[in-house]
Amino acid sequence: WGRINKRGKKQKNVFQVANKHLKPKNKAKPVTTTLKHINAVKHEKVENLNQIFTEVQRDVRSISKSVAPEPKKQTQIVREPPKESVNVDNAAQLFSQL
């Protein structure tokens, strides 16, 4: 980093890098460790719930197979014809009065 002058002595560098002698710390951060623990616990709970829901789904399937499906009645929509005949000319005249 330093330059050697004519007399053989090192000159101090004018621009020093701040904190250049610090070593990076590889210490585990408590937040990261806690988050990993929380995620592990959540993962276990999710796996447990998935297993329970899979069993419930199997039970529902077996129950639905054992019960005979009832025939569904088809609902028909019956439209009644209008009681009075539609007078288009009269309707147009009423609209023009508005």
Short description:
With 98 residues, the protein is mainly α. It is built from 2 helices and 2 strands.
What is the strand arrangement across the widest sheet?
Answer: 1-2
Count of alpha/pi helices: 2
Strand content: under 5%
Oligomeric state of shown chains: single chain
Order of helices and strands: EEHH
Q: What does the largest sheet look like?
A: 2 strands, antiparallel
* Percent in helix: 40-55%
Backbone shape: elongated
User: What's the alpha carbon Rg, rounded to whole Å?
Assistant: 42 Å
Low-confidence stretches: none
**Helix-strand category:** mainly alpha
Count of β-strands = 2
Kindly state the mean pLDDT as a whole number? Answer: 76
Terminal CA distance: 95 Å
Protein name: Ribosomal biogenesis factor
Biased composition (Polar residues): 87-98
Pfam families: DUF4665
Region (Disordered): 64-98
Feature tags:
single chain, 98 residues, mainly alpha, two-stranded antiparallel sheet, 2 helices, 48% helix, RBIS, Ribosomal biogenesis factor
Can you put this structure into words, describing what you see?
By secondary structure, the protein is mainly alpha-helical. It has helices at 30-66, 88-97, and strands at residues 3-4, 10-11. It has a two-stranded antiparallel sheet with strand order 1-2. The model has no long low-confidence stretch (mean pLDDT 76).
